[in-house]
Amino acid sequence: MRFDLDDVGSQNTYKLLAATVMPRPIAWVITLDAEGRLNAAPFSFFNVMGPSPPTVAIGIMADPERGFKDTARNILDTGEFVINLVPERLVEAMNVTAVDAPRGIDELSLAGLVTAPSAHIRPPRIAESPVAFECVSLSSVVTGPCQVVVIGRVLAVHVADDCVLDAERAHIDTPRLDLVARSYGSDYVRSHDTFSLVRPKWSEWTGSKPE
Question: Could you read off the pLDDT of 155-168 as tens digits, one per residue?
Answer without folding.
Answer: 999 999 999 999 99
